[in-house]
Design a protein that fits this description.
alpha/beta; eight-stranded mixed beta sheet; 13 helices; 19 strands
């Protein structure tokens, strides 16, 4: 028989039951409200709820569609600020410098560089890795940005970008797709240690809006999974790999994992737009005509504004005459090399090995072909000329072109010890003048091809004139007499 419960005992227990019942409802209601608010107001969910913008393919990509995210720190910014001022255009570009701490209170932030924001983390590697996502999130809530955001360009405070060429390159890709675009290290030993499928962060890389949005959803959790990896760029690549993205290679991004004089690399650039240079604070001045590397780089950046697409593009031609054969290689806006003997184009496109690898200072291997050079063999050395001045002009036919002058300054001083007749004639040269039609950036949308050139001598053999233009049908660089 069940024990009896008096009506009094039931009535006495009811108030406690009702109180507990109401408390549970209140707790559930609070939990639901808290969960809902956290869903609605968290950064990641706002990103998730905001639909991807439908790509506008009718308007070509321009600088206003690109947002730059530059990672820096309080320790490095002061000494690297001027490198950023070389390429940043305050009235045309937008982006952010990401610092780990606020600048000193008595320092006015200059308007010659991007505005700064703070990104704090227990690890500098994590902080740099978050630059992509933090830049993406900053853009979402910046009401001043009135144009469509299509691409994010990520780099560090030692990266020198060439903005017009970035635009020309990105126009080749559909910004509505998921893209991760960059390049690998020049030193094989670096790629073996890190990855051949990773965009090196110092060289900079591009990530499309849609890819950045997807990355923002997983970044915080994903970074923790790869805490054992060395660099921020490795972690970014690992997280993008989880999204199914692989690296799209663009050889114009340059990590410059090289030691010593990088002249050889700059004098034989691949047939691709020059997009970036990194670690220029670690190499000697790229031109002997300038007091320091900052001045030399300013010269390169300034001349690139005359003809961005042609910057560092190589042209090869030959000058023949009684008793001499010259092979001429022009790296537009930077240098001219004259070899007083015949060299096939397939050899001239290989950079002179004026540098060593980054990690062990070895003579290779590199991720490109390189020509070894023996400085003691004086008759196997080129004469070198460096950019002195540049100007733009319009011809009578309305065609725009540039005129660039290069002064003789031999990289290898002992070349003058060679007594071969072909060298003796070449020693008279003091200046090379290069006339080049302005290169259409739309050319990068087609199969890459070097432009052709032809030469003539003037001023009693003291000046060589080189004319560069698109190759005519059947035109070639004929190196044999």
């Amino acid at each position: 028989m069940k024990p009896c419960t008096s009506p009094r005992s039931i009535q006495e227990g009811r108030p406690h039951f009702i109180l507990i019942h109401r408390s549970l409802y209140a707790l559930l209601a609070f939990s639901f409200l808290f969960f809902t608010c956290s869903i609605l107001f968290s950064d990641e969910t706002l990103i998730h709820l905001r639909p991807y913008p439908k790509p506008n393919l009718s308007i070509s990509t321009n600088l206003s569609h690109i947002v730059f995210g530059i990672s820096s720190s309080g320790l490095t910014w002061d000494r690297l600020r001027e490198y950023n001022e070389l390429w940043w255009r305050p009235q045309e570009m937008h982006g952010y410098i990401w610092l780990d701490e606020n600048p000193p209170a008595d320092v006015t932030w200059p308007d010659t560089v991007p505005p700064y924001r703070i990104c704090k983390s227990n690890s500098s590697v994590l902080r740099v890795a978050k630059t992509v996502v933090e830049t993406y999130r900053a853009v979402q809530f910046n009401t001043r940005l009135t144009t469509e955001n299509r691409w994010f360009i990520i780099g560090d405070d030692a990266t020198i970008f060439f903005p017009d060429n970035l635009v020309a390159m990105l126009r080749n890709y559909n910004h509505g797709d998921m893209y991760y675009i960059g390049s690998i290290s020049e030193s094989v030993e670096q790629d073996l240690v890190h990855s051949y499928g990773m965009a090196y962060g110092g060289a900079g890389f591009a990530i499309s809006y849609k890819a950045a949005a997807e990355l923002a959803l997983i970044m915080d959790v994903c970074l923790e999974q790869y805490h054992n990896l060395y660099g921020s760029d490795e972690r970014i690549q690992s997280c993008l790999s989880e999204l199914g993205l692989s690296l799209t290679l663009e050889p114009g991004f340059h990590q410059v994992d090289l030691r010593g004089n990088i002249y050889g690399m700059l004098a034989a650039h691949p047939v691709a737009p020059l997009l970036s240079l990194n670690r220029m604070n670690f190499v000697p001045p790229i031109s002997p005509l300038n007091k320091n590397n900052l001045e030399a780089l300013k010269s390169l950046v300034d001349v690139s504004k005359h003809d961005p697409s042609r910057t560092l593009q190589q042209a090869i031609c030959y000058e023949h005459g009684p008793g001499f054969n010259w092979s001429i290689s022009v790296s537009w806006g930077y240098t001219v090399q004259i070899y007083p003997w015949s060299i096939a184009p397939r050899e001239l496109v290989k950079p002179l090995m004026t540098f060593t690898t980054w990690r062990t200072c070895s003579s290779g291997p590199f991720t490109f072909d390189a020509r070894p050079i023996n400085e003691n063999q004086t008759c196997e050395l080129p004469l070198t000329f460096f950019l002195d001045q540049a100007r733009a002009e319009t011809g009578l036919n309305g065609i725009r072109r540039t005129v660039t002058d290069y002064l003789r300054n031999d990289l290898y001083k002992n070349v003058t010890n060679c007594t071969l007749p072909s060298f003796t004639k070449a020693f008279k040269l003091q200046r090379v003048r290069v006339l080049a039609t302005k290169m259409d950036p739309d050319e990068w949308e087609h199969a890459p091809r070097r432009h052709c050139c032809r030469t003539s001598r003037a001023r009693n053999g003291k000046m060589l004139t080189v004319q560069i233009s698109q190759c005519a049908p059947g035109q070639r660089a004929s190196w044999q007499v």
